[in-house]
């Protein structure tokens, strides 16, 4: 039984999609004014992993993740760089794709942009005004928070308890316009020199929260299966999305809410954040560390748990990923001398299927990637034991390969069959070294090993012959 933790109810629930076999999933995307840091990438990778597992389990996932391309930060960055807000957004959307492609994140079914949905946003806000869930003051439009009786349900807060916190976040000049301090902006009147659009309330631009409500319901319908994002979005962003969406449609906005934990840094495990200045850009890290290692590091922790970013954890991810790749290379190596079948094939095939079922059981428990990887490592150990046997069979090798590949694909790991295609010059050197060893010319054998090592080729002498891998 597939269960996921629903932030709305604070418990694990059996996952039941609206349409059997299909999942509608909306994940809050980046505000595109800069490169994404590792904390941003964590959310992107976490829910890509969730999506991949759903697809592995046979679901057809319609996955929507937005770009916020209208925002104060974008306007400020545009002024700093002497570009238009649209040029800034275009620039950083392109770099987002570059970085997430390097991390082997699947492209979303749709990546809507705010500027492409402005007419729908204005119409959505107008409907809330018509229904008396919103009111207009001097060109600004605010949501009547107290009118929505369920407000605070997602973040488990009462509306009265929110008043003091809301007062601290609001600017003094905007507080005086509101009927209630907890009301929030749906539409903002334009300031001089800012990008704006024509609306029934004058020139202006949308508030942040309304944008996601409009794009999510427009592309996925009035009710979503899953709405996801970082833990810090639970309040106020997702809370506000629920209020305005359900007031507009009259339907439950999302049946399941999923939130990923933070990436932390330092001895105090402080949350990685641009505002705190303690961040590492994904764009920079993947220039220094294999992007597959970064992806594996980000995907290996449970999505709801904090993830500590440090050199030790990156090294652990490197070691574990190399072990997985080496096991795969050793498996491929044995195909050349494999038998058509062996007497114990049925037993080993059943064992592989049992391991795959154990993986599903682990991952069905709220996408528990650490427990899932424990099963993957068990599969790797069994592969290594099998490939070190004197005799192996094609059916078993193929079963190991298919299962191993399918499970690691969920974690964004792409395995290559490159080592089946040994370059002539590398193979010639390996053959020469083998002959030198047979002739007891160990000096020449060591010389060839050192030469290959200098070229990034590591040799492994086994009972089945010499194998190689890239360092």
Automatic annotation (TrEMBL):
Keyword Aminoacyl-tRNA synthetase: yes
Subcellular location field: Cytoplasm
Subunit structure: Monomer.
Enzyme class: ligase
Gene Ontology molecular-function annotations: ATP binding; cysteine-tRNA ligase activity; zinc ion binding
Residue interval(s) of motif 'KMSKS' region: 271-275
Coiled-coil positions: 307-334
InterPro entries noted in UniProt: Cys-tRNA-ligase, Cys-tRNA-synt_Ia_DALR, Cys-tRNA/MSH_ligase, CysS_C, Rossmann-like_a/b/a_fold, tRNA-synt_1_cat_dom, tRNAsynth_Ia_anticodon-bd
One BP annotation, GO: cysteinyl-tRNA aminoacylation
Annotated binding of Zn(2+), by residue: 28, 212, 237, 241
Family to which this protein belongs: Belongs to the class-I aminoacyl-tRNA synthetase family.
Span of the annotated motif 'HIGH' region: 30-40
Any single Gene Ontology cellular-component annotation: cytosol
UniProt keyword annotation of NADP present: no
Residues that coordinate or bind ATP: 274
Protein name as catalogued: Cysteine--tRNA ligase
SUPFAM superfamilies per record: Anticodon-binding domain of a subclass of class I aminoacyl-tRNA synthetases, Nucleotidylyl transferase
Cofactor binding, note field: Binds 1 zinc ion per subunit.
Enzyme nomenclature, EC number: 6.1.1.16
């Amino acid at each position: 039984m597939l269960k996921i933790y629903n932030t709305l109810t604070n418990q694990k629930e059996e996952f039941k999609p609206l349409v059997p076999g299909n999942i509608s999933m909306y994940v809050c995307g980046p505000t595109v004014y800069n490169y994404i840091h590792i904390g941003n990438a964590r959310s992107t990778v976490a829910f890509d992993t969730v999506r991949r597992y759903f697809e592995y389990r046979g679901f057809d996932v319609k996955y929507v993740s937005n770009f916020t391309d209208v925002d104060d930060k974008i306007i400020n960055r545009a002024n700093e760089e002497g570009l238009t807000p649209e040029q800034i957004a275009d620039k950083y959307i392109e770099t987002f794709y570059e970085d997430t492609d390097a991390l082997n994140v699947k492209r979303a079914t749709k990546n809507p942009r705010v500027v492409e949905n402005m007419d729908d946003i204005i119409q959505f806000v107008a409907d809330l005004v018509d229904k008396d869930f919103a009111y207009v003051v001097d060109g600004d439009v605010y949501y009547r928070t107290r009118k929505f009786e369920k407000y605070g349900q997602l973040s488990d807060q009462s509306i009265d308890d929110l008043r003091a916190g809301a007062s601290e976040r609001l600017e003094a000049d905007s507080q005086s316009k509101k009927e209630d301090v907890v009301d929030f902006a749906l539409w903002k009147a334009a300031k001089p020199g800012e990008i704006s659009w024509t609306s029934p309330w004058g020139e202006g631009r949308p508030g942040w929260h309304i944008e996601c409500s409009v794009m999510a319901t427009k592309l996925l319908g009035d009710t979503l299966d899953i709405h996801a994002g970082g833990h810090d979005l639970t309040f106020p962003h997702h809370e506000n999305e629920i209020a305005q969406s359900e007031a507009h449609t009259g339907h439950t906005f999302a049946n399941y809410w999923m939130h990923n934990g933070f990436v932390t840094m330092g001895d105090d495990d402080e949350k990685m954040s641009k505002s705190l200045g303690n961040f590492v850009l994904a764009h920079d890290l993947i220039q220094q560390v294999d992007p597959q290692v970064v992806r594996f590091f980000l995907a290996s922790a449970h999505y709801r748990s904090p993830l500590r970013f440090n050199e030790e954890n990156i090294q652990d991810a490197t070691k574990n990923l190399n072990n997985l790749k080496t096991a795969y290379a050793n498996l491929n190596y044995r195909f050349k001398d494999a038998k058509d079948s062996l007497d114990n094939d049925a037993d080993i095939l059943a064992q592989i299927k049992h391991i795959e079922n154990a993986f599903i059981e682990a991952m069905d428990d709220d996408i528990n990637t650490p427990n899932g990887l424990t099963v993957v490592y068990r599969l790797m150990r069994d592969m290594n034991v099998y490939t070190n046997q004197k005799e192996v069979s094609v059916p078993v090798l193929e079963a190991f390969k298919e299962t191993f590949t399918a499970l690691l694909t969920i974690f964004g790991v792409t395995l290559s069959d490159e080592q089946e295609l040994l370059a002539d010059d590398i193979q010639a050197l390996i053959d020469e070294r083998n002959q030198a060893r047979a002739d007891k010319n160990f000096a020449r054998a060591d010389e060839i090993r050192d030469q290959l090592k200098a070229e990034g080729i590591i040799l492994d002498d086994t009972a089945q012959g010499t194998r190689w891998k890239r360092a």
